[in-house]
Amino acid sequence: MSKRRHRRKPVRFMEYLDLPVETLPGIPKLTLLGRDTVLVENHKGILEYNSACVRLITALGILRIGGADMELKELGSELVTVRGQVESVLFEMQ
After folding, report:
1. Is residue 82 part of a domain?
2. How far apart are CA 60 and CA 72, in angstroms?
3. In whole angstroms, what is the distance from residue 72 CA to residue 50 CA?
4. Tens digit of pLDDT for each residue in 9-21?
């Protein structure tokens, strides 16, 4: 069984029970505020950071936030706040 398939099992189970997926521990929660701020909860670390993109490690894989003038405004063990001209937010295929 692939890792990708294994990661989806708890999510599908919660959906089957009609329970909110965000109650699963470790699942990243993304909040987009307009086009200039992204809050990411439950990250596992920063993989890359520059003015064009921020790549974060999450339980679901690598999250890439792309844009211009990207800055880390808040960095905690559970929460990252990224500000700048946000152009894309995506999970990279592994």
Report:
1. yes
2. 21
3. 9
4. 666 766 676 766 6
